[in-house]
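Archive entry. Fields below.
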Amino acid sequence: MKALICGAGIAGVTLAWHLERVGWEVELVERAAAFRDGGYMIDFYGPGQQVARRMGLMPRLLDVRHPVREIRYVDRHGRRTSGLTLPSGLDDVLSLLRGDLARAISAEVRAPITYGTSVESFDQHADGVSVRLTDGTSRAADLLVGADGARSRVRELAFGDVAPRFLGHHVAAFTLRDARLSAQIGTRYQMLTEPGVMAGAYALGDDRLSLLFLRRDPDPALPEDPAAALRRGFGERGWILPDVLARCPGPPELYYDLVTQVEMERWHEGRVVLVGDACQAVSLFAGQGASMAMAGAWVLVDELTAGGDLPGALGRYQERMAPGIAEVQDSGRRFIAWMAPSHRWRIAVRDLMLRLAALPGAGRLFVNSLSPGGHRLISGRSHVLESVRED
Ligand SMILES: Cc1cc2nc3c(=O)[nH]c(=O)nc-3n(C[C@H](O)[C@H](O)[C@H](O)COP(=O)(O)OP(=O)(O)OC[C@H]3O[C@@H](n4cnc5c(N)ncnc54)[C@H](O)[C@@H]3O)c2cc1C
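PREDICTED_STRUCTURE:
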């Protein structure tokens, strides 16, 4: 059996890893010109971490993790307004750069990846799918997989225009090398929040800072010049922001996108199937997209190898994943008001909660409340976790 996977992100390389180990021939095509490094910090836990453990990736991930021991909210002068020292025992949450997770998985994938290429079109027939690529070549496969993210091209070709649910925010991230600012920020996750905006910084330990920007904006149009839009939205807000934004790179080093979720009735059509953000994006508000992408890839291979016909396997894959994804998407939407407070009173309530969380024993409860879906997943009451439970 042969699979052509469009998109070499977290979902795509995890799927390739598993398929080639059960004897499939696999090929990936990736739109980016080269491997996408760096990116933004993610918290990695729950089902994806269970899949990573099965893949034997944990030693490598523990090597590249960035321990966050404190969350600190600051004002425009960089003064601490509230915060929380994270309790020990949260070691099950790994903070990683997205690129480091993708690299750890890709390092063990033998399938060829053709960069700078995408799917142009495809035709399905009784015993296969013929795919034309944007480089003018063609491929024949038994299964075409769209692992090409929330703006999936394969999804568009297979299902037409499926508009992701826009959550009313724009998000941006980049890394910057600066020894002085890195020493100032340290391995504390520092954030400035004002109504409708959030900017966060974390030092990666090698003079690099990881920066994240979140801004409420009802306009679902991407700006023509994302770096200029960031400077307009954040450049006058003090702290380290004027300094870092003066050196803000353009895309692709600057990640800039809308915050969206993808909800679909069907994740497969004939010999075409979607995996990861392409069919189940949960958004950064839910904070588990990479974990869920790995879980989805694992469940898909589990069903493809369970026997029976292809449509049955693809249907069971969706049935196993979809309820848990809906649950995580819902918790993500409920979290928006706390991660990006739109009113001063919410910021005041959050600061009060943080002061209460400093009381003995309350820290873990608070962290769980910051990530409502995550708590359920870690404690094993989620449909998705059930799907990837250790044998
Ligand atoms: C700021 C931010 C913070 C986040 N925090 C967390 C977190 O804390 N925890 C967590 O688990 N998740 C988090 N996520 C979500 C997580 O990054 C995504 O859910 C995850 O990367 C999805 O993996 P994917 O492989 O489906 O999609 P992607 O990572 O988007 O990969 C898709 C791949 O397909 C390629 N591609 C796109 N279009 C095409 C095309 N037409 N042809 C060929 N290739 C194409 C892309 O270049 C990319 O390599 C966060 C996301 C953001 C933006």
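CURATOR_NOTE: The first strand starts at residue 2 and ends at 6.
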